[in-house]
Amino acid sequence: MRRNDRSVNGSESDSGDDDNEVESHVVSPSETQDVMTRGRNFVGFWLLGLCNNFAYVIMLSAAHDILSQQQAGTNATLPTAQPTVLNGTDWELPSIAVDNSSSTSRYDCNPVSTAAILLADILPTLVIKFSAPFFIHLIPYSIRVLLCSLTAATSFIIVSFSTGIWMSILGVVFASVSSGLGELSFLGLTSFFHSSVISGWSSGTGGAGILGALSYSGLTQVGLSPKNTLLVMLLVPVLMMISYFGVLVHPPSLPGWSRKRAPPQTDRGARRPLLDEEDHQEDVTNTETLGLKEKVFIVRGLLKYMIPLAVVYFAEYFINQGLFELLYFPKSDLKHSEQYRWYQTLYQLGVFISRSSVNCVQIKKIWILAALQCVNALVLLLAVYYQFFPSIFIVFAFILYEGLLGGASYVNTFNNISRESSDSLREFSLGAACVSDTLGISLSGALAIPLHDYLCRLP
Q1: Which of 114, 135, 273, 378 sits in a 20 to 30 Å window from 419, CA-based?
Q2: Which H or E run includes 184?
């Protein structure tokens, strides 16, 4: 009580100065509330990242199981599906392992690719990411979240009740739309919050690969059919809506159900301009006032991050789509399918670790990661062709390293763009840059599929 009296009466003494110094370190209720708000938003974006990719992982895994059941029902040869998870937001071309005992190829692989699944996966996302940044601001975020949830739920329902291949592929298309629209929207949404939510979103997308695969395999192992497992997973779109409407603390600047908006969140930390704003003559207040010419100008400034990210994804999924199945060690105690699953597990583990690391390690020069991933792809291509690796554990190390590089390039690209963009350009910049990963995946598929088929036919 005496301490407060001295402060009120303005008395000056050494003791009073010490007391004031102590009081200056007391955390105010508003600061505590701010920390709690940031914590809720971090958790909210982690869940949004998890749901956005988790649903896609589950849906496509089940699509292959149901396709297998359909083929068995028509007396077709029943293949063993080996679905492969893409880094965070998409899926790569799955390989269907068949009995190649009569094959003359040097590799234990299937020379026939399921290209229809790849196209159904990649093309809708690519179209959305190329076109949506130029009009998506006309759709309020709350409506976008509902669309993402509805399309994800639709994909579950379609695939679970699928009666033919065309229905399963249609389910893949709906899942691709949900994932592509979700990534574009949620990355733009981060512009209204503290920059730490970028880490939460990226970590959630990284965790979806591991948690999605484990949950699906776990439920099917305990006896649930793929159809019933999918129906259980309808909880995931519900969790997405709960995360957005219930967990996130919406700032006043965030447009909910209407397009009216105030200036976005400005507490972003140190910022180095992404664009030369002296050349940007017009007074831009938000995304809605940007014209086509201005948006093209902004994209030009983003290329220093977009190109390296696309190269990382190109090299990464060149490995995953074209080489994973061919990295087979017949003398290992692990069967071919078990080796393949270990590759996927280690890859997803690397992605999850690096996507969760941006608060500890931040990388500005993404082109270094792109160069390292290209070297990684070259080494593994030579290893497939010349078969010089003596042990599968060397491949395990390379694949874990591949996942670390891919996850680090993703989270650091968007973290850098978020911090370096001005407040008025951040929302559009984050949405426009996310086309890079899908473009890299598409280009890698165009090369990896024929390469995979060629290697499978080598005597």
Answers
A1: 135
A2: helix 165-189
